[in-house]
Queue: 2 jobs
Job 1
Amino acid sequence: MTITAERSGQFALGDRLANRLGYGTMRLTGPDAAGRPPPDRTTTIAVLRRAVDLGVDHIDTGDYEGPHKVTDLIRKALHPYPVELTITVDVGARWTTEGRWVQALSSDDLGRAVQDHLVHLGVDVLDVVNLRMPGFPEPVEQSLAEPMETLAALQQQGLIRHLGVSNVTTQGFAEAEAIARIVCVQNHYDVTHRHDDPLVDALARLGIPFVACSPLGGFPPIQAPGLARVAAVLETTETEVALTWLLARSPNILPIPSTRAVAHLEQNLEAGARVLGPVELEALDRIGSVVGPEEDL
Ligand SMILES: NC(=O)c1ccc[n+]([C@@H]2O[C@H](COP(=O)([O-])OP(=O)(O)OC[C@H]3O[C@@H](n4cnc5c(N)ncnc54)[C@H](OP(=O)(O)O)[C@@H]3O)[C@@H](O)[C@H]2O)c1
């Protein structure tokens, strides 16, 4: 079977159609994603190039990658960028050079982050900038008006093509939309973590992508007996089932799994070619405890 992200289907992201299975760069900085330098530059570049070769046209990166600038490696691996590639950049929090995780939502912080990404990615305009609010993995009610207005002004200056938001509630999304057009929402969502079910459906009705961050549950990846049972029945891995479930859940979900391993990247893209039957889907739905407690498949 040919592995390609195209098998996962497509959904509009800004002014392009993106293959639904994308790629997040966070784990390139090491297993704990704590802003350290990528442990192996050669493998990092190989993973990024393999992703694009296999049809990944949506890569998510950001200041949470740390001061060592994974963006430099993205540029080294992929510049000049294919026209169909959308690189989304998350701003609003960052690792300091001393290894501290800090919020960075002031106008100065956001302006600096945008300039930084332009320079390190080697572009004149950023495809999509997501305002990343505090509140991962559970978004909290808080006003995002001030930082959103800053990003809208940077967009008007021509530095940003599209804007998105991350770690927001339905109300936060509405507040952002009142300030600027929002082309994607990126929140934590996986088969066991379905707090955002109503937001997924609301965005689907509006034709807006819900980008599922940490779609495998982060580190360590999701472990749930129900997931293991479905994977065993289908003779595949739990991670593949978790991604296939996300693709089946709603057409506007774009998962961005992260990995430092080419083999895992390839396995993840295989999820796009798999189809879950009604029995498996029902069993997986129960894991998120929306329907009820887990039962045997
Ligand atoms: N906006 C936000 O607040 C926010 C927060 C968190 C994440 N994100 C975004 O979401 C992306 C993904 O998040 P994440 O890295 O936390 O979580 P994730 O993609 O759910 O999980 C990554 C973990 O799964 C492992 N993995 C990946 N593919 C695998 C496979 N086929 N088999 C076994 N293990 C596999 C990776 O290890 P290996 O490297 O060994 O494969 C890594 O430990 C990030 O890159 C970032 O873009 C955004």
Note: Residues 24-27, 60, 90, 132, 136, 166-167, 186, 213-219, 221, 239, 256-261, 264, 267-268 surround NAP (CB under 6 Å).
Job 2
Amino acid sequence: MVHYGDYQMEIYRAGLDGRLPKLPVDFRSLEAWAHAAMPPGLVSYVAGGCGNEHTQDINVSAFERWGLIPRMFVGAAKRDMSIDLFGMRLPSPIFMSPIGVIGVCAQDGLGDIATAKAARKLGVPMVASTLSNIPLEEVASEFGDTPGFFQLYTPTDRALAESLVRRAEAAGFKGIVVTLDTWVTGWRPRDLNQSNFPFLRGHCLGNYFSDPVFRASLADPLDEDMQAGIMQWGKIFGNPLNWDDLPWLRSLTKLPLIMKGICHPDDARRAIDAGVDGIYCSNHGGR
Ligand SMILES: Cc1cc2nc3c(=O)[nH]c(=O)nc-3n(C[C@H](O)[C@H](O)[C@H](O)COP(=O)(O)O)c2cc1C
């Protein structure tokens, strides 16, 4: 894994020749640059949360309350942050969470690929979203030796869910992350005020449009009626799952199955009892 200390020395050394970093390294400036580079509707989608964004703000302040107490005299010249997870040895306990519009956050529309390449370089696994601009097979082909995880938005069509999972297995993904908290999108005032929902504009539906089950559900081929394809996606996107559906989900794959969006301890216990392998505790960033 890249040692950040090497990276900063690289920057300081380049500074001796008068060269500055291409991108700012602090979050605030990075955010400002990103906002300047993206269309306003996309900025709203990425930066906005639901309601008055109270949950989003509280997430940040709650996280700020965590701290680390460093221990001294441990000779930490060579660090080891590695963890064992689902039988894999990972260089750090960090993952890249699934970001549905990451594809269009890059000006060339290849943000999913750029993220997969970063995962390969850093050894930090990418959780690739169902809502990807580029089909999951192409994203996975960029992972190199870094394991990748596929995030599933379970559609109402079970055959389509199964097809997506089969494709993820065949593409070499090492786990399936099922997002439970978004069978309907949040009430997002920034997006509502601009009447902007990227997916209804046909963005980031690459996994659906490349799927044989999805394509077979359309009356006309996609290239003849793209709008009908988008509307069909809207109809099948979100499945409000019940506990009764969990055995079916579990039966879909032998890969590690991780449930995203579980927050209550009772839900966590019940999911583990039903055979899931991991709990991804999250309120979807208050989105
Ligand atoms: C722009 C954006 C798009 C997101 N898209 C997805 C997605 O496609 N699938 C998903 O499960 N979560 C999605 N999320 C939620 C993130 O994966 C993650 O849950 C959130 O950023 C909060 O982090 P946390 O879950 O670690 O608390 C998205 C978040 C953002 C900011």
Note: The two ends are 32 Å apart (CA to CA).
